[in-house]
Amino acid sequence: MAKVIPLADVRASNGTVRVDPLVFAREAGSGPLADTRGRPLHDLRISVTDRCNFRCVYCMPKDVFGRDYPFLPHADLLSFEEIARLASLFVGLGVNKIRLTGGEPLLRRRLERLIEKLAAIGGDVDLTLTTNGALLAQKARDLHAAGLKRVTVSLDSLDDATFRAMNDVDFPVARVLEGIDAAAAAGLAPLKINMVVKRGVNEDSIVPMARRFRGSGHIVRFIEYMDVGATNGWRMDDVVPAAEIVASIDREFPLVAADANYTGEVAERWRYRDGAGEIGVIASVTQAFCRECTRARLSTDGKLYTCLFATRGYDLRDLIRKGGGDEQLRDAIAGIWRLRADRYSELRTAATAAAAKVEMSYIGG
Ligand code: SAM
Questions:
Q1: How many other CB atoms sit within 10 Å of the CB of residue 63?
Q2: Closest Cα to atom 10, ligand 1: which residue?
Q3: pTM listed for this prediction
Q4: Which residues contact 285 (CB under 8 A, 6 or more apart)?
């Protein structure tokens, strides 16, 4: 394998690593692509906007993401052509799943055009999107027609007052449920529904959520509240451990553990014993899954991050806009991946939780 060079040689001071093509070409190597811990690159999450129409208290709290917040200007965003070009190179390097996210991806104008471009890459890529569902009822058919295969909808409670308080823009549950129905009717199935569980805020909603979607064909995934970014004031006491979530559902609706669909699947799967479908739990805090993490993230402005909890990203947009060719870009991505050593969740402490990590809305949830 190629010699590992100290990243300090190419790192700028503001959390961005300048990608010197010559340096990374040396790292690109040949043969199957794997990082320093032997993990392949299979998933790419692309943040298409850093803006959102919700202000979820645990993700984009209003006091930080207020009227004066400096969201990225349009010229800084990767264009659809730039995104599709990079995505195609990622697929060439082994990516078989692409998820569009944000911010709220449905806020990016003419997103269907990007989906068409991504669907045209071929290679049997699983093309999906994560949304808060607010605009889904009006967009589901067009998204499916453009080539989107599935969606994941975030929904933290079925209790209207709790949900309005959590999204902090007074958005009603009923409209997200309409979005879910529209997505299912448009063929964006199987649908996944993500619920972030925060102690003392929405843990009462766990069992009602399971009850509502049992037998629907939709898969609810209960997510441990994480210390992403640096603005949500995370404390370990706020986390409801996955084991507790599973136990509370199991008391009402008996569950049995199911095998993962594939290596590196984030959610631990559980089936209802009575055959009414399955749920997932994402235990990134209490049962770190870094060892099997195969995900890369492309930020809204084209920086490549190799961990959700990263403090720096590699500037691929700079390389593109300076006229970098496909080979240079491919080598850069491969070199960055080969150097990857991230395992944040295995090392998490109260001190790391306070580190200056990038925000999830920017890096892509
Ligand atoms: N706006 C879209 C949405 O709401 O799904 C996509 C972006 S959002 C950042 C993606 C996912 O990250 C959502 O399911 C959200 O609940 C989850 N998320 C955000 N902050 C989180 C945190 N601190 N811990 C766990 N999940 C979080």
A1: 8
A2: 365
A3: 0.93
A4: 224, 225, 226, 227, 236, 239, 241, 345, 348
